Amino acid sequence: MERFRMVFQYFQSNTESVANGICALLTLASVKMYTIFDFNCPCLPKYNVLYGMGVMFIPPVVLFFVGIIVNKHSVMMLEEWTRPTGKRKKNPAIIKFMFTNLIQRAMIAPVVWILVTLLDGKCFICAFSVTVDPSRFNGLPNVPGLDITRVLAKVPCKEDIIFQNTTSRKAVSRYLRCWSQALGWSILLFLIMLAVVARCLKPCFNHAAFLQARYWSSYADLEQKLFDETCSTHAREFARKCVIQFFESMHEEMCQGMILPLDDEDDPLHGITSRKQVNELLKAWYRSKPDLDITKIAQRQYNRARVRVTWEGDQNESRQAFKQNGHSPHTDV
Q1: What pTM did the predictor assign?
Q2: pLDDT by residue (tens digit) across 13-64?
């Protein structure tokens, strides 16, 4: 149970891992959906192609858009694209990096669906049975009043009475299934070779620009997450003090000893104590993201450190002076 909690916390805190987990779940869901899908070819010349191609390509389109919707990078990319410029300029490299990751992850589940359908062959047989050259196969049924196109359209329906006493249906099915599987394995081999080439050529490109885009993409995600956490902390403290103030005005004796001092250095309100100030803060955050420069805070921390070192030095000098005079620094003279 403890290991499961640690894994869950890791996935919850890491956006990259969350995206990979969602991608894996969509891929497994696509395979599971196909295995439980009840495939019934209409066995009619005008509808076989529509049904077969529909089953092969419509679910991948749905999975593609679902992958885009559930991926957090899509929201981040749109926010980065549509936000006002303000003090922070927009970085096209970040948007490009997010868009590439978004498309790559969203395409995995649709590609897996198409590969599974091709390797299985049912959709391909249903869609292209009427396109087979009948002269290649001997023993096709010759039914009076029924043309050869209608006969070939019934190849996917093995229970049809036309093919009860003939083996031609199996021959046509094997022929089309071989073409389907060959196409599926060819697409898989092409994707693997494309991934290998991309991996090999990756060091040839500007790796520093890639690292920068990846860093600032992670920064944008963490910045929004920290801003939400800070807003939550501020809202909690603001609501707590509003509730305490309400009870204090109604029953002052119920709130004795519960109110924290307003001059606390670690006060989460940061001096923002009214609804108007909060609304102005949120508007300012949206209209003008802060500049990516924290030198002011670094300088303030440096000054505090210098003051602390100076104070500690003065204390040490005082102790040494007391010792040289033969007095203890903790005794009254």
Answers
A1: 0.67
A2: 455 666 667 777 888 888 888 888 888 888 888 899 999 999 999 999 999 9
Encoded tokens for 114: 């198409």
Contact yes or no for 245/274 (Cβ under 8 A): no
Residue the block writes with tokens 């102005």: 280
Query: How many CB atoms are closer than 10 A to CB 218?
Result: 14
Interacting residues of 235 by C-beta distance below 8 A, sequence separation 6+: none
| Distance (Å, whole) CA 46 – CA 48 | 6
Q: What pLDDT does residue 261 have?
A: 46
Tens-place pLDDT, residues 91-101: 888 888 888 88
Give every CB contact of residue 97 below 8 A, 6+ residues apart in sequence. Answer: 210, 213, 214, 217
Compute the radius of gyration of the chain from its Cα atoms: 35
- Decide: residue 167, CB within 10 A, 0-12 exposed, 13-18 middle, 19+ buried: exposed
Our measurement of the distance from residue 76's CA atom to the centroid of its chain's CA atoms, rounded to an integer in Å, reads 10
> What's the CA gap between 85 and 252, in Å, rounded?
48
Contact assessment for residue 175 and residue 129, using Cβ atoms and an 8 Å cutoff = no
Please tell me the total number of residues recorded for the chain in this structure.
333
Closest CA to 125 of 92, 80, 170: 170
Burial label, 165 (beta-carbon count in 10 A; 0-12, 13-18, 19+): exposed
In one-letter notation, the amino acid at residue 95 is I
Q: What pLDDT is stored for residue 165 in this prediction? A: 63
Burial class of residue 291, CB neighbours in 10 A (0-12, 13-18, 19+): exposed
d(CA 118, CA 115): 5
Question: Could you give the CA distance from residue 269 to residue 55 in angstroms, rounded to a whole number?
Answer: 56
